[in-house]
Design a protein that fits this description.
Blueprint: H1 3-8, H2 11-17, H3 31-35, E1 45-50, E2 59-65, E3 68-74, H4 87-90, H5 93-97, E4 105-107, E5 116-118, H6 120-138, E6 139-142, E7 148-152, E8 157-159, H7 165-177, E9 183-185
Parallel strand pairs: 8-9
Antiparallel strand pairs: 1-2, 2-3, 4-5, 6-7
Length: 189
């Protein structure tokens, strides 16, 4: 490498002799900087999402490559979080790729000590059967005063803070249609 080439590689020299007198662009780049690539640059697509941890609803950009989530970061277009995420939101990638994530239904029988895998269809049938049975056993046509109530006290709903308004609306509609009156949300408690 000649002296002229060596001096030409200095950012200050490039700044004063090139088209970048303020040193904010090409003049400030070194060979090492040129090789650096953003960790999200190889993603096939970016999917807009909402953080699932709390009711704030921070926006997230989810980077996907070959159908798998590779990175999650704050969405700068979100009016809620403006690109920022708390420590929990920053760790959202672990929800999809973490080794502790279960990808199957697990069931523990009454008085059982071990979890066993269960088919999703079987689990859904068990839940439906139990809701119908609890509704049937706890159904009340009238109160003790003789007032018509048409309700069940056989089950209740307690929603979590990660549910958004639309999900809470649908849950309220579902449980009201089933006759439940004990419908609450953790965010209100």
């Amino acid at each position: 490498m000649g002296v002229r080439t060596w001096i030409g590689s200095w950012p200050v020299y490039r700044q004063f002799t090139g088209d970048d007198p303020l040193g904010r662009g090409a003049a400030a780049k070194s060979a090492g900087t040129e090789r650096i690539r953003a960790r999200v640059s190889e993603a096939d697509r970016v999917v807009k999402s909402v953080c699932p941890y709390c009711a704030v609803g921070c926006g997230q950009d989810v980077y996907v490559k070959d159908g798998k989530v590779t990175h999650v970061e704050g969405d700068p277009d979100s009016p809620v979080s403006r690109g920022r995420l708390c420590p929990k939101g920053s760790a959202t990638l672990q929800l999809t790729t973490g080794s502790a994530r279960e990808h199957r239904v697990l069931y523990r029988r009454p008085y059982g000590t071990e979890w066993e895998p269960l088919e999703l269809d079987t689990a859904m049938e068990m839940i439906a059967d139990r809701v119908i049975d609890a509704r049937r056993r706890g159904w009340q046509w009238e109160s003790e005063d003789g007032l018509r109530v048409r309700r069940t006290l056989g089950f209740a709903s307690l929603g979590g803070a990660t549910l958004d308004n639309e999900e809470n609306y649908l849950i309220k509609k579902l449980f009201t249609a089933l006759g439940a009156v004990q419908i609450e949300n953790q965010a209100r408690i």
